[in-house]
Design a protein that fits this description.
By secondary structure, the protein is of the alpha+beta class. The chain has two domains: 180 residues, FAD/NAD(P)-binding domain; 177 residues, D-Amino Acid Oxidase, subunit A, domain 2 (D-Amino Acid Oxidase, Chain A, domain 2, 2-Layer Sandwich). It is 32% helix and 26% strand. It contains twelve helices and 19 strands. A hairpin with a 4-residue loop joins strand 10 and strand 11. The two termini are 31 Å apart. 46% of the residues are buried. The structure holds flavin-adenine dinucleotide. The site of flavin-adenine dinucleotide has 43 residues, from helix 1, helix 2, strand 12, strand 17 and helix 12.
Length: 385
């Protein structure tokens, strides 16, 4: 009879839970990874798939660098849809140019490859950019992009094929999790029960099923993002992660630059900033381009983020995108909303219950970039204690 006891159970098979399970499997533990849906379908599949350590600060930069290498290593062994086309930040005015140069200096000091590109160099690589928008670019050739709608499915297949000590079970909503007799017992909504020495909960932005009382007081915020996708344009020269002026005014790595605090928001960007809009482009493998995104926030336990798509936000994003690239031939094919959780004062939320149940969530907008690196450290610490 199959034993239902494990060294470690991980609840939630988004990118954060899956990489926790991966690292525990590398450490030879007997792991059960449980997912409530038929396939993960939350933030991990709704995002851009930009793996951009260059946008992260402090330890998260290092987690991102580690994750990029791990993605490349797995890709060399098994196709998970990772492509190395680099990331570029495009500056459109003096302030944004200044930030590019300051970030380049910081990256040089870290020994992380970065190149300033002139307008001409940018245009020869990405000819659809408008020359009047593109003053300069900062290019990170080592960075990669993922296909978010398939990455996690390939990664789960890879993990279950590579590790005989890792079991993955979908369609399993865990509705109870408690410490009993020096082990943790988890019970699914279908009445299945499992036990483990330890449990890690990577529940993303699902806060109503497990420990709702803790999450209500946690200060966690859910961010709702709107995203657009064009019809496929396989010949379009727009490879890599394309990040633009408003991103330099938003990402953590730029916040660390000396000029960041002095930079004012020009009047024409104010409404975009009010909706948390910054424009990113990511050409997917089928040639469609993902364009986004916006940010609206609600506090867990107080409000719901809502499911509707606000057309005004989509119009603002499309108009700003058209200022950056030539979109005359572009046709919209899809629009959706994605949700991730974050904490206003913490880079991630870590809650430990009796040193056996370990909640790891609210990684924010950096999960595709840094989960693989963060999870390595997190698993080491959880298994050691
Ligand atoms: C629109 C958008 C764009 C983004 N773009 C980028 C980007 O380009 N680069 C980047 O680095 N990051 C990006 N992010 C952020 C990134 O997608 C997230 O940080 C990351 O996916 C979070 O992963 P997660 O595993 O914590 O959460 P999730 O993906 O939400 O996964 C949590 C999983 O847990 C499961 N679960 C929850 N409760 C239970 C339970 N009780 N029992 C069983 N299963 C349970 C859920 O079903 C879900 O599958 C973006 C996010 C969004 C929304």
């Amino acid at each position: 009879m199959k034993s239902n006891h494990y060294d470690l159970i991980v609840i939630g098979a988004g990118v954060l839970g899956t990489f926790h399970a991966y690292h525990a499997a590398v450490a030879n533990k007997k792991i059960l990874l449980l997912e409530k849906d038929q396939q993960p379908m939350q933030a991990t599949v709704r995002n851009f798939g930009q793996v951009v350590p260059s946008g992260m600060s402090n330890d998260w930069f290092q987690f991102g660098v580690y994750a990029t290498q791990l993605y490349k290593t797995i890709q060399a062994d098994y196709n998970i849809g990772i492509r190395q086309n680099g990331s570029v930040y495009i500056a459109s005015d003096d302030d944004e140019q200044q930030l590019l140069h300051e970030l380049k200096q910081r990256m040089d000091a870290r020994g992380y490859e970065a190149h300033i590109l002139t307008t001409q160099q940018c245009l020869s690589r990405w000819p659809v950019l408008h020359p009047e928008y593109c003053r300069e670019g900062l290019f990170f050739p080592q960075e990669v992009s993922a296909e978010p709608n398939v990455l996690i499915h390939y990664l789960l297949k890879y993990c279950t094929q590579r590790f005989s000590n890792l079991t993955y079970q979908n369609y399993t909503t865990i509705q109870a999790c408690e410490v009993l007799n020096n082990q943790v017992k988890v019970v699914s909504s279908a009445g299945q029960s499992f036990t483990a020495h330890k449990v890690i909960i990577c529940n993303g932005s699902e806060f109503k099923i497990l420990f709702a009382d803790i999450f209500e007081k946690s200060g966690i915020v859910i961010s709702k993002l709107q995203m657009l996708r064009t019809q496929p344009m396989p010949a379009l020269p727009l490879e890599g992660n394309i990040l633009t002026g408003l991103t330099t005014r938003r990402y953590e790595s730029f916040e660390e630059c000396p000029s960041f605090s002095k930079i004012k928001t020009p009047a024409h960007l104010q409404e975009l900033k009010n909706w948390g809009i910054h424009i990113l482009f990511k050409k997917a493998m089928d040639g469609s381009v993902i364009v986004g995104d916006s940010h609206e926030y609600v506090e867990v336990g107080k409000e719901e983020p809502g499911y509707e798509i606000n057309q005004h936000i989509n119009n603002l994003m499309w108009q700003e995108a058209a200022r950056i690239v030539d979109m005359k031939e572009w046709k919209l094919s899809a629009a959706w909303a994605g949700y991730y959780s974050q904490h206003p004062q913490k880079d991630i939320v870590e809650i430990d219950i009796e040193n056996r149940i370990h909640i790891r969530t609210a990684i924010g907008g950096k999960g595709m970039t840094s989960s693989a690196g963060y999870a390595q450290k997190s698993v080491q610490q959880i298994l050691r204690d």
